[in-house]
Amino acid sequence: MAHEILNPLNIIGAIIQLLQMEEEMPERFKPRFAEVMEQIRRATNITNSLRIFSCRHQPEISEVDIHALLDNTLALVRHDLELDNIRVVRKFAPDLPTVAADSDQLAQVFLNLISNARDAMRQSEPRRLTLATSLVEQGVGLAVRDTGCGIPASELSKIFDFFFTTKDPGRGTGMGLAIVHSIVESQGGFIEVSSRLGAGTEFFYCSTQ
Ligand SMILES: Nc1ncnc2c1ncn2[C@@H]1O[C@H](COP(=O)(O)OP(=O)(O)O)[C@@H](O)[C@H]1O
Ligand SMILES: [Mg+2]
Q1: Where are the membrane-spanning stretches (predicted)?
Q2: Residue 60 · residue 101 · CB < 8 Å
Q3: CATH 3.30.565.10 matches 62-207
Q4: 54: pLDDT confidence band, cut at 50, 70 and 90?
Q5: What residues does ligand 1 touch, defined as CB less than 6 Å away?
Q6: Which label site among 46, 106, 114, 121 has the fewest CB atoms less than 10 Å from its CB?
Q7: Which atom of ligand 1 is nearest to the CA of 175?
């Protein structure tokens, strides 16, 4: 299904790019074409997220070492975080038990939370991303904490909704936390958020088995 949308989008994008390179293109059309490209990019982003979401296989449950998975996930984004001058603080609890989970899906959860934290700290200082694990009553916990812009109280109940985004088109799709929520629920865990406007946000994930 996603392919049927992505293919025409790719073709349209390629044609627009060719037109943009046309020497005889009148100056006054250029911003219009740039806007069309931006919208194509946006539609592509959303379709890609939908694909990841809808193609989700039945969870493949195994015993996951949360610390190893976090470090693997961090390795994927370390470069981006460094570019944004974000300091990463790992507070890993000793002797943390493994959790029964689908490691690909859990990696997706961590990636989404880290990517949101990164966006939230774009305009603020200091920029610190803390990943803190713990063994709590219900199971293994992970707090993803940032020193970013925070979330207004009036938006807290909406952030897990599909397509809720406060970001510019092209930057945000509003799919990240909806996917996070659905993955966490399907694996029998929970996720909570607490935030202070202008100070930062913490997402607390807990795997309950
Ligand atoms: N760490 C965070 N700090 C501040 N706001 C956040 C954070 N994480 C999520 N949000 C808010 O929740 C919204 C939805 O997030 P998400 O579902 O990942 O979509 P997207 O990142 O595409 O906007 C964001 O647009 C933002 O307003
Ligand atoms: Mg996001």
Answers
A1: none
A2: no
A3: yes
A4: low
A5: 112, 116-117, 120, 146, 148-149, 151, 159, 164-167, 172-178, 201
A6: 46
A7: 17
